[in-house]
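Hello forum,

I keep getting stuck at the same step: I have a sequence, I want structure tokens, and every attempt I make locally crashes halfway through. Rather than fight my setup again tonight, could one of you with a working pipeline run this one for me? It's a single chain of 164 residues.
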Amino acid sequence: MPSDKKLELPAYMTVEAALVIPAAIFGIVLIIYMAFMVYGRCVLSQDVYILGFRAYLLYEKQGYSSPCDYVTDHSDEKTGSRYFGSSKPEIKSSVSGKDIRIDGSITTNHRALFGYFSKIPDIWKSEAAARVKIITPAKTMRKMKRAKDIITQTAEKNKKKGKP
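Reply #2:
Ran it on my machine without issues. Output:
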């Protein structure tokens, strides 16, 4: 290549690369980080509901005195180690009448890009709750059948007496 010809590049490309590329990388990293946080929240919501549902179905069959005991014993087994970048979930349960309520929470700790953005909090907390209503289909069916039988018997008595 002859040395008398200089290769010149316009300066705007350098400035654009210095501003746009870091902003694009920051945006991509932020999207990935938020996706992990949303993933943790979704998994927590699913785990909380499954624990409540299983507690409703299995607590008596497995010898537990209440659904809360079942949830306490099986929460670690169900949640496992699927919460990437977040703390181990805190699972609490309560029973009120025929309702089982399961509450779960996780915290996501980060340093907000090593302190460059002070407005972003260091700890994000995600919570999920599920309510499972205890129903006994056999009792409900018996009540409905009994009500139907009473209506049928009453209608037959009224028909014999000549009442419409």
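Residues 59 and 66 are 6 Å apart (CA to CA). If your local run keeps crashing, start a new thread with the error log.
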